Amino acid sequence: MTCRHFLLAIALVLALAGCARPVPADKFHYVGEWKAPGMTLLITQDGSVQYERINGGSTTKVTGPIQKYEGNDFSVGIGFLSTTFVVSKPPYQVSGVWKMVVDGVELTRVDGSGVAIKWNA
């Protein structure tokens, strides 16, 4: 890779990193690490998403900024290269454990060590 290509790649990465918008207050509970067998979804406060899903023999990975929200759903990507995550059940609690259903999968919010986060009233 030439120096020119390297600098162009760095500029592109910095430009894409700047595209994320903070998660709005009404979607605050979306923020966190969510897991289910074969699926991980990380939504950060700055509006960045990291997603991985293993289904059968294939793995799907998506990393990028949240572009927009439509109802409970959200789109991730840059320009026309985006994907929509269908949120059929936004974050809710079951016995103090946070859950959310995304693309038909019930996810549990976990801490950094993979332990379910409980809300204590």
Task: Walk me through the topology.
Elements: H1 3-17, E1 32-36, E2 39-43, E3 48-55, E4 58-70, E5 73-78, E6 81-85, E7 87-94, E8 97-102, E9 105-110
Précis, in short:
12% of the residues lie in helices and 51% in strands.
Helix content: 10-25%
In percent, how much strand structure appears in the residues?
over 45%
What's the level 1 CATH class?
Mainly Beta
What global shape is seen?
globular
Flag low-confidence runs: 5-11
Number of domains: 1
Q: How many helical stretches?
A: 1
Walk across the major sheet and give the strand order. Answer: 6-5-4-3-2-1-9-8-7
Taking the alpha carbons of the first and last residues, their distance comes to 55 Å
Mean pLDDT: 86
Instruction: Say how many strands there are.
Output: 9
The biggest beta sheet reads: 9 strands, antiparallel
From the alpha carbons, calculate the radius of gyration and give it in angstroms.
Answer: 16 Å
The CATH topology is: Lipocalin
Supply the helix-strand structural class. Answer: mainly beta
Oligomer description: single chain
CATH hierarchy: architecture: Beta Barrel
Order of SSEs:
HEEEEEEEEE
Question: Can you offer a commentary on this structure?
Answer:
This protein is mainly beta and about 120 residues long. It has one domain: Lipocalin. Helices cover about 10% and strands about 50% of the residues. The chain has one helix and nine strands, in the order αβββββββββ. The chain has one helix spanning about 5-15; strands spanning about 30-35, 40-45, 50-55, 60-70, 75-80, 80-85, 85-95, 95-100, 105-110. The protein has a nine-stranded antiparallel beta sheet, with no helix packed on it. A hairpin with a 2-residue loop joins strand 8 (about 95-100) and strand 9. Residues about 5-10 have low confidence and may be disordered.
